[in-house]
Amino acid sequence: MTSPAQKQKTYSIGELARTVDLSQRTIRYYEEIGLLHSVRRIENGKRVYTDDDVRRLKFINRLKVLGLSLAEMVELEKVYRTQRNNREILPKLLAILDERAVQIDDRISQLTALKTEIREYQARLRGKMMMEET
Question: Rounded CA gap, 78 and 89, in Å?
Answer without folding.
Answer: 10
